[in-house]
Amino acid sequence: MPDKIFWNQRYLDKNTGWDLGQPAPPFVRLIEKGEFGPPGRVLIPGAGRSYEGIFLASRGYDVTCVDFAPQAVREAKEAARQAGVKLTVVEEDFFRLDPRNIGVFDYLVEHTCFCAIDPPMRQAYVDQAHALLAPGGLLIGLFYAHGREGGPPWTTTEEEVRGLFGKKFDLLSLGLTDWSVDSRKGEELLGRLRRKNDLRE
Questions:
Q1: Neighbours of 137 (CB within 10 A)
Q2: Does residue 1 carry a pLDDT above 60?
Q3: Which among 27, 28, 47, 167 could disulfide-bond with 65, CB atoms 3.0 to 4.6 Å apart, if both were Cys?
Q4: Which Pfam family, giving just one, matches this sequence (predicted)?
């Protein structure tokens, strides 16, 4: 997996091709249609410049954005300041968050983090997401199913997402979204997954 130094340099060089410069339209549409959920505590891992975080904070959500690249954190904080919203931005590895964050979030918003980590780490991502969410919390995510070799971004499939998350989450909805930006049409799976509380087999 590319490390903190690698990702930080990408931000310093402005070499961030994944960056849309705006909140991903599928999240905006969910809010506009009233299908995201009521305001609550939101965690965004690998948040980068935190467009989704700023957008949700402007809609009354209590948002914590996490990224381990110092330059991304600096830019996110400045963007939040300019937008005039209250946003908590933490420079930390998602997999090493302070244990005090366990079980406290109502939502986890996934966008370009899952596809950036090495595929063998995906089960650890699922476990961490489950641990950080409160009982009944929602993971609302865009999963990049571009179908190309190599990465990052590493591709996924609807079958893989269902298989990985199915034991710890109830999949309320998952499928290709019509709301992607043009460059990602037909390549993004929009999912709403509810944290299971009883994990007995």
A1: 25
A2: no
A3: 47
A4: TPMT
Which residues, other chains included, contact 44 with Cβ-Cβ below 8 Å and sequence gap of 6+? 50, 52, 53, 63, 64, 65, 66, 108, 109, 111
First to last CA, the chain: 32
- Choosing among 3.40.50.150, 3.40.640.10, 3.30.70.100, 1.20.120.450, the CATH entry for 4-14+25-195 is 3.40.50.150
DSSP state of 155: P
Residue identified by tokens 């919203």 is 85
> Considering the entire predicted model, what is its pTM?
0.95
- In this prediction, residue 201 carries a pLDDT of 43
> Which sequence spans correspond to the domains of the chain?
4-14+25-195
